[in-house]
Amino acid sequence: MLKRQLATLIFSIGFLPFQLHANDPDEQAYQELMALLNAQTELVTRTKVNADYVPGSISVLRGTELMRYGVRTVKDALSMTTSIEIQPNHLGQSVLVMRGLGTPYSGGTVKLMLDDVNMVSASAGYSEGILHMPIEQVERIEIIRGASSVLHGDFAYSGVVNVVSKKDRHLSVGFGSRAYTQVSASEQFESESKQSRLSLSFSQWQQDKSGRRAEGDVLTEADPLFGAGGALAAYSQAPGLVNDRKAYRNLLMSFSHNDTEFYWQAQEYKTGDYYGLIEFLPKQTQDYNQRYRDMLLGVRQSSRLNADWNYEWHLGAQQRNHQLKTLYTSEDIDFMQETPYSRFAYESPVESYLTERVMNLSGHLVYDALSSHRVLVGADIERVELIKLSSDSILGNGDDIRKSLEQGSEGDMRHVLAVYLQDEWRPHDRFTLTTGLRAQKAFISYQDRTDEDDIRQDKPFEKLEELNITPKIAAVWRLNDQHIVKAQYSRSLITPPIGQVTNVGQAPEPKPYTSETDHYELGYVFQGLKQTHRITGFYSDYNNMPKGTVYYEYFDGGRDEAEPFNNVRSKGLEWDTEFNLIRGLNGFANASWLETKDADNDVRLVGSTDRMAALGLNYELNPQWRLAVWSKYIGERFREPYDSRENLKPYSVTNLTASYASETFKGLVFRLGVENLADSEQYYASPVNGTLSGLAGEFIAAYQADYLGTGRQFWAKMHYAF
Question: In sequence order, which residues have a C-beta less than 8 Å from that of residue 306 and are 6 or more positions away?
């Protein structure tokens, strides 16, 4: 019933604006619409133009609007957009699923960037920190759906997300349930000549455990593995609370002089160990068991050589750190009592440390003298190295433990060289044909972690070093001021994360190699006075997919070899709109109908859904008071084909925010919000566990009841822009 009501409401709102009179004199509504239509981006073609005039499917989310809807982090903002869902895994890591693709592949199929700098880890394929960045620091979020490797290279496989930081003056404080506290502040200093500017921005937030409980897991509820004796039950602390406490902080600094900018950015996200490293509920602690630290340093310059040529270059360095500490054992296990010192062993955690260093040099030249052509040529050079990687456990440091914890080996290194060319041809002022080509080659120096007694392959990583060519051709035809037609073909690539390919396996198993996708898209945009509608049909053929780090059983029956997973196909239809209904009332809506399949076995891809929708309304009662509400609906999500459980049920979440803008102090806004207003239950998949399935002789998940999402949360904020 809820699904039908939401679909009806979206349909009604989407087409109601067509009935409104085009000459409504409401100046405020007109200005809001113009701001909506003129959202600009350089993400797609490096050309600063209206987002609806560039090839492909792109969304631009503005930070100011997101705050009005009560959005608190980048992750929350992405959940509002078309064809995107965030699915947490057993360690609480956020897997970004775009157009049904993502869950089995550890989130490494979407490129996440901060101010055009890649934030995705080359060793593990995820980026946790940027997803928890507060919206107070965000100018806008640019999202490309579909293959985008010509300009963006690795990880731009099914899409790109670029977070553009805000350079402003503000102070924001907040608090809420679950001991939520938040503070954010930024300042700018300018020289008298306005040629130099220093920007500083700091943010920090934290919240305690949500109160979610794991009532039991397969060990404590039934223990089917060893019968009534419960031999393994002592490994789990279920029933008990899930340790999902969170904390985030960052510092962003930049100094610009004329066309040159120097920047330094540092962020840290830390959280608990959720449902446990091996999916047995860990012993309760007050610790932040996981820490993600990213530090960025760089310089960029953008300028004109003359009237015909302009250029941009960037030199950057990053250091990414991931630390995991999680309790592995229990004091109730028999062998913990066998020796005098071992009774303290259960207090010693499993520990894993990873430090990854990245150096990057990139740049491009643009020739814009021809009346009908704009030519761009660029190059990227990147060096990635694992400079620290270790693991430790009271159970020993054998190969099995290291392989399960470590994402590669110390000293693993990769160099990537890419050159690309793009031409924007404008034979008519309303028609643009964009063609592009990227050539990329990797030079691999990884250690093969295959067991010593296995027969190792000769040159195990040679296929990763093959030259990859990714083309693109796209057309945008503005039929008139209201109607736009788009078409696109593009190919994209992803070099598998280091931790997924370094245990190559014995001959004659396949060697790991770079994966590619072919992407086709046809779109239509209607730009009216009071609404914009976008309809997009797409088809993507993903070949030779790299396997992820959780769903091993899904790929190869539990074997440890790095084996490509072939032939995933995704197709669907997307609709999204922004509208102004009546004076003071505007909003957005989107809906997706998707089919993402494992084509080899003719089954839906695990973690995908066939439909999702969102609806938001923003009502300004008067210049001081504003009320905003938005809802997200996710249809049933599919499991592994050998999982006997029913598919995950659909869910919907509604968020409500009230705002008051002070008349006395201009720029001072108070907001009161509630997330998950109806306290609805959301569940995320606990996948089949290969180890438990082997012991039980049947496919079984550690948490048969899956992972429960968070419930209702209240919060309040004060934001002062000065």
Answer: none
Using CA atoms, how far apart are residues 419 and 367, in angstroms rounded to an integer? 16
Q: What is the pLDDT of residue 232?
A: 65
- Strand intervals (E) in 120-257: 138-145, 159-165, 170-176, 180-190, 196-207, 213-214, 240-241, 246-257
d(CA 504, CA 528): 55
Of the candidates 150, 670, 618, 710, the residue with the CA atom closest to the CA atom of residue 376: 150
Euclidean distance between CA atoms 252 and 204, whole angstroms: 12
The token pair at 371 is 């009346």
Which tokens belong to 314?
A: 């960037």
Q: What are the backbone dihedrals phi and psi of residue 415, each rounded to the nearest 5 degrees, phi first? A: -115, 135
The β-bridge relationship of strands 110-114 and 117-118 is antiparallel
Instruction: Specify whether the CB–CB gap between 673 and 655 falls below 8 A.
Output: yes
Q: What is the pTM of this model?
A: 0.89
Distance CA 84, CA 403 (A): 31
In our burial notation (b when 16+ CB lie closer than 10 A, e otherwise), range 217-227 reads bbbbbbbebee
List the one residue out of 339, 547, 414 whose CA is nearest residue 123. Answer: 414
Neighbours of 400 (CB within 10 A): 12
Q: H or E stretch including 220? A: helix 218-221
Q: Buried b / exposed e across 582-620, counting CB within 10 Å, b at 16+?
A: eebebbbbbbbbbbbbbbeeeebbbbbbbbbbbbbbbeb
DSSP-derived pairing of the beta strands 159-165 and 110-114 = parallel
Residue whose token pair is 């031999």: 231
* Residue-wise DSSP of 151-170: HH-TT-SSEEEEEEEP---E
Query: Please, is 253 exposed, middle or buried when counting C-beta atoms within 10 Å of its C-beta (0-12, 13-18, 19+)?
Result: middle
Cα 128 → chain centroid: 8
CA distance 265 to 74: 17
- CA pair distance 544, 517, nearest whole angstrom: 9
Residue 405 has phi, psi (to 5 degrees) of -100, -35
Q: What is the pLDDT of residue 495?
A: 84
Residue ranges of alpha helices (H) inside 499-653 are 552-556
User: What are the pLDDT digits (tens) for 690-713?
Assistant: 777 777 777 888 888 889 988 999
Contact 541/592 with Cβ under 8 angstroms?
A: no
Nearest C-alpha neighbor of 54 from the set 568, 627, 534, 689: 534
171-223 per-position pLDDT tens digit: 999 999 999 999 999 999 999 888 999 999 999 999 999 988 887 777 777 65
Structural domains in the chain, sorted by start? 2-721 (2.40.170.20)
